C-alpha cells in the first residue's frame, strides 16, 4: 500500500539531538503559525481544574448490577461527550506499566548511533522516527518516536524491536499482551453501550486474532521555546481506539473541549483512553473522536506510550446498520483503514479534517 512512500523527502533531524546541542532558539521548521501555538492560561475559558472523566473499570464487570450500570453509563458519556477518559483498576500490572515506560526512557537515552540502527521509513513507519507526514518542507513537531507492530502476529517482527536495553523485547511483548486484553474488554463495553451485541465492534475489527495493534513510544525532549511549538500537532487518531500510558510526572496531553484546550492530569496508574475515527464511523458519530495535541516543556522531557487498537487494515469500515435510521442516515461511506490512514501518513496530523471531509473530500489546509 505504501509503495509510493519509500523514503523521507529530506534528511531526518533527531529532535533529541537538537535539544542536547544547547540551542537557544528552535529551527524555523518547528515554529507553528501564531494561531496554532500553545497559549498562556488565557487560552482556557474552562476552569483549569476540569479534567477528563476517570472511570473505575473493574466495575464494568462487577456482579453488582448498580455498579456495572453506573460504570457503563460513565463510559457512554465519556465516549459521546469527551472522546477521552481515564481508566483505573484496569487489570494491567502497575509494575509492568512502570517497567515498560522506564525501559523506553533508557532506549531514548542510548547513543544516537545505537538508535539510528532502527531508523524508520514512511513505507511502514516501523522503527525510530522523528516525523510523521512526508510532504517536503512540512511543519515539524518537537518529538522523536519508536513505532512497532504488535498485531496481527504475522506483522510482528521482534528483530525490528530494540535489542538494547536487554529486557526491552520481553517487556514489550508482555505489555502488548496485557493491553490487547484490555482493548478487547473496552470494545465490549463500547458495543453494549450502543445497544449492540457485546462482540459487535470487535467482530467489525476482524475478531481478536485479526485486530491491528501497534505501539508508538513518544519522546518529547526539553524545548528552549515551548511557547512556539508543539510535541504533536492537533489531530484525531485515525484508528479505532488509543490506550495511552502517559508520563507519570509531566503533563503534556491536551484535549479540545469546545473552544478550549484542557490539559489532562494523569490519575495514578491510569491509562488514558480515546476514541479514534474508525469507532466514530462505526457508531455513526454517536461516539466522537476528539482533537488533541501535546505541549512541550522547557525543564523536563517526557515519555509516553500510545497503543493503537485498530481494525484489520483491509476490512471495509462503515456505520453499523443497526445505528442507521431514517432520522440518522449513514454519515460516512465505506472505506478500509488502509485507505484512510494513507491520508494521515501523507499529510501528517491535521485536526479532524479527514473524518469530517469524508462526504466531500478536500485537501488538508496548511497548518
Structure, described:
The protein has one domain: B-lactam Antibiotic, Isopenicillin N Synthase, Chain (Jelly Rolls), CATH 2.60.120.330. It is built from nine helices and 14 strands. The model is unreliable at 40-47 and 360-367 (pLDDT under 50). The chain has an eight-stranded mixed β-sheet. The protein has a four-stranded antiparallel β-sheet with strand order 6-11-8-9, with no helix packed on it. The chain has a two-stranded antiparallel sheet with strand order 13-14. The longest helix has 26 residues, at 168-193. It has helices spanning 15-20, 65-82, 94-108, 112-116, 168-193, 200-204, 277-282, 337-347, 353-356; strands spanning 54-56, 84-88, 127-129, 144-151, 212-220, 232-235, 241-245, 253-257, 260-263, 271-275, 292-294, 302-310, 316-317, 335-336. A hairpin with a 2-residue loop joins strand 8 and strand 9 (260-263). It has 367 residues and is of the alpha+beta class.
Feature tags:
Jelly Rolls; 26% helix; 367 residues; 18% strand; metal ion binding; four-stranded antiparallel beta sheet; alpha+beta; L-ascorbic acid binding
